[in-house]
# Entry
Amino acid sequence: MRTSSINRETKETKIVMELNLDGRGQAEIDTGVGFMDHMFELLAFHSVFDIKVKCVGDLKVDSHHTIEDLGIVFGDCLLQALGDKKGIMRYGQMTIPMDEALVTTTLDLSGRPYLVYHATLPMMMLGNYETEMTKEFFKAVSDHALMTLHINESYGENTHHIIEAMFKSFARALKQAVMIDEKNKDLIVSSKGLL
# Structure
């Protein structure tokens, strides 16, 4: 089973997260940020990962530390669960429409962290979620999962729809990338022999 469990505690956040890459899309999420709970639930459903998250953050300040640290821990969990990456497809891409919004995510579980992020988010806040933290979340995931990650909004007007399309396209691309190629399940998909 490709699973991981991480408990991370700082002066700003306490996070416990469990991840199962071969799950059924089940989510138990409590981050203290309602919109982020919703995004993690979508991430679990569309990737078909099982994700459990409990986070207590310094929300009296703002959502910055909570969202960034959730990205760090999710990236760490993903890297841990992937192990030596034998047999994975490595690459994933998905374009998702969400009403008027269209977002494409392309990723490579390359061992090289890099984020390209192009999006315009009209609203600054969704509940107690600061929308500029969307980029910081994906940057933290990319850095800690050692993933090359490109997220491109083609167009959109509604901030909720744009971010939702990001998370759904990310989840579906990630689902592709972590799939095991049964014909090559003992191979690492790299000419270098290492990811």
